[in-house]
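Hey, resending since the last one bounced:
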Amino acid sequence: MNITLLAAGPPERAWLQNLLAQTPYRKENITLAAPALPGQPTSLDSTLDLLLLSENAVPPHLLGRLLVDLPERAALLLISADPAGFRPLLARSGRSGWGILSP
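The structure tokens again:
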């Protein structure tokens, strides 16, 4: 399984990596992603299976673009303390594999 972590900064990345390290199976290929330039979207690998995204990693105006650029086969798991603003955007995206987790 190819997993990409997209987090706002080093503390969030470390937290997400630690979370994944606790899984009972370790066959994942985990990649850390960061925008090429601040405020710009990230290019994502076409073999991606899961994007694990923290709410602060992508500005709200770029989240829609990220959803379009996300490979069709990939699922998205958003970590957000306030999911209400993200649910409509994710629902409208047409993506069947998505979810929101509380930190």
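The beta strands are 2-6, 29-33, 50-54, 75-79, 98-101.

Sorry for the duplicate.
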